[in-house]
Amino acid sequence: MAKINRQPKAINLSSLGNINTEINTGYILNNITDETTTIEETKNNEIIDNNIQNVELQTDNISNVIINKIKNLGINMKSENIKLEISDKKGDCLRLIQNIDNSYVDFKVQQEGILTIKPTNKTILIHSNNKIDTAIPLTLLNHPNITSENNLGVGLNFDIKNNINTIKTFGSISILGNNVTNNKETSKLNIDLINNGKINNNTLTLTSDGVLSIKRLVESSDIRIKENIKLTNIKESYNKIMKIKVKDYNYISDKKKKIYSGVIAQELKDIIPNAVDIESNNIYDDFHTVSTKEILYHIIAAIQYIELNKD
């Protein structure tokens, strides 16, 4: 039975447009060297797929573009199991171009593995489809809000299409820098929500010194979510309130050293334990916080006790 030699051949596309199939640069089918293959084992003298290891595009004997045996595509491929890999020392890996107006989006990977998406118009839209027409598309908008050198901002807009197919911003979250001077930067967090068709600016604002501004604060108090309900012992509430020591102080991190009046959480814990929560944060494993609502209701009960025990 006759044997056939299945040596690989390369196709070189030269700058002159000539095609040369004898040199090992250009398009290559690697490792097709099974000399034991018989004519009967081939179909119409075709190359057997299982013997193809890589399809490569080479320049100066360096593989630039590779389609490997498991059908993965790589540009300067390093990880053969990745479906699509683009490798570059500078991290400038991919550009997508809209050929109508030549706008583009660049994808860049920094050494730390951080992905940077840089579009021409500095806006990134992320769309998701929903079967309900009045709820599409949901869009997350990353927008630099630049109004002056000392008021830089970045945030997310949440856009939804209404019942007449008009896309409106239903809410946004943004960070505004009040000072961009080195080591003096301050910022605030804004949350804006739509109300009666218009955005209600500064629905919630949180400043860098911890001041939270909202129009109204409510808490869950429905009787249907409560049990073991009974009247508070107003005398005990009075005694607790009388034990609380109000202190004047400033916060260590406050450079202005503004004086506040309030309680010390560790002291309050011994008087009204339910008014103090203890959790870990970035600095302390047992950081103490105070729930003022617990104090407020004991104050109400204490006032009632005083009124009932007047001379």
Shape: elongated
Average pLDDT metric: 77
Order of helices and strands: EEEEEEEEEEEEEEEEEHEEHEEH
Largest sheet: 7 strands, mixed
Number of strands: 21
Q: What value does the Rg take, in angstroms?
A: 35 Å
Share in helix: 10-25%
**Contiguous uncertain segments of 5+ residues:** 1-50, 131-148
Q: Approximately how much beta-strand content do the residues carry?
A: 35-45%
Question: Which class of secondary structure composition applies to the elements?
Answer: mainly beta
Distance between the termini: 124 Å
Strand order of the largest sheet: 2-1-3-4-5-6-7
Counted by DSSP, the helix tally is 3
Count of all domains:
4
**Quaternary structure type:** single chain
Report on the structure:
This protein starts with 9 loop residues before the first strand and ends with a helix. The model is unreliable at 1-50 and 131-148 (pLDDT under 50). It is elongated, with a radius of gyration of 35 Å. It has four domains: 10-84, no CATH class; 88-121, no CATH class; 124-214; 223-308, Winged helix-like DNA-binding domain superfamily/Winged helix DNA-binding domain (Arc Repressor Mutant, subunit A, Orthogonal Bundle). The chain has three helices and 21 strands. Helices cover 11% and strands 38% of the residues. The chain is mainly β. The protein has a seven-stranded mixed sheet with strand order 2-1-3-4-5-6-7, with no helix packed on it. α1 crosses α3.
SSE blueprint:
Elements: E1 10-13, E2 19-20, E3 27-29, E4 54-59, E5 62-68, E6 73-75, E7 84-86, E8 92-98, E9 103-109, E10 115-119, E11 124-128, E12 138-142, E13 152-161, E14 167-179, E15 186-195, E16 198-207, E17 212-214, H1 234-243, E18 247-249, E19 260-262, H2 265-271, E20 276-279, E21 287-290, H3 292-308
Parallel strand pairs: 6-7
Antiparallel strand pairs: 1-2, 1-3, 3-4, 4-5, 5-6, 8-9, 9-10, 11-12, 12-13, 13-14, 14-15, 15-16, 16-17, 18-19, 20-21
